[in-house]
Amino acid sequence: MKIDAHVHIYPDKIAAKAAKGIGKFYDITIHHDGSITQMIAEEDKAGVSRMVAHSVATTPTQVAHINEFIMGAHAEYPGRLIPFAALHPDTPDMENVLKGIVAAGFKGVKLHPDFQEFQLDEPRALRMFSMIADAGLPVLIHTGDYRYDYSNPPRMAHLLDEIPNLVAIGAHLGGWSVYDEARKTLAGRRNFYVDTSSALYALKPDHAVELIRAFGAGRVMFGTDYPMWTPAEEVERFDALPLTEAEREQIYHGTAEELLG
């Protein structure tokens, strides 16, 4: 069984534009449009059974619309999507918004500090993360970017120190483009998990395994970052890593099942 712990989805009318925007931000060519139907088709080709699905709110006013869309997709594909909610650090009445997120059945929250332009450990972010932790939700966070200083490993470490009951998933092995710094700074921290999305393409197999084992297979989840990457190609990259079969199964589905159900 395979669970993809990191996919972005968008309504059909904006999917192509949104995917193009991601490609421009990261200076890569994206070959998929970010629509739900194409995502499901590509994940089926890769043998992926379930996907953690989300989208990022770049303004507070987008939060409700995105969450309605994510839950609609969840209903359309029962048993396939693990829904993560959008949130923004400037969301009004955040405590009640989070109560609604929990009541709706979301399994976590997704944030992208680099897109949303907030530092992980600034006061408004700490307030938000404290509320997320109190709501009992894990939070999937884009982490790392050598070009900016919103989500790099030292800020994640400070966040975890400030809110020790927060369960955080650091995307991209804890730090996109700063993978070794993430390992040195974040491996072994309580309540901290990572996914493999947007990491395997950049790392040699032995290096990727070194990073994975530093965090421990029980804290690592397989992820593709769709539509940035093709799921079947990410499965091929992951299967090429010199891991044990037990490690591979844990990362493909065990960790996600334990954390998200």
Can you describe what's shown?
The protein has 261 residues and is α/β, with parallel strands linked by helices. The chain has a single domain, classed as TIM Barrel, CATH 3.20.20. It has eleven helices and eight strands. Strands 1-2-3-4-5-6-7-8 form an eight-stranded parallel sheet. Helix 9 (205-215) links the parallel strand 7 (192-195) and strand 8. Helix 7 (153-162) runs parallel beside helix 8 (179-186). It is globular and about 50 Å long. The two termini are 14 Å apart. 49% of the residues are buried. The model has no long low-confidence stretch (mean pLDDT 96).
Which helices and strands, and how do they pair?
Blueprint lengths: L2 E6 L3 H15 L9 H11 L3 E5 L7 H15 L4 E6 L7 H11 L3 E4 L1 H4 L6 H12 L4 E3 L11 H10 L5 E3 L8 H8 L5 E4 L9 H11 L4 E2 L9 H9 L5 H16 L1
The figure for the number of domains is 1
Whole-angstrom Rg: 17 Å
Q: pLDDT below 50 for ≥5 consecutive residues: which ranges? A: none
Q: How many individual helices?
A: 11
Strand content: 5-15%
Structural class: alpha/beta
Pfam families: Amidohydro_2
Keywords: Lyase
Domain Amidohydrolase-related: 3-261
Protein name: Amidohydrolase
Keywords, separated by commas or semicolons:
261 residues; alpha/beta; TIM Barrel; eight-stranded parallel beta sheet; 11 helices; globular
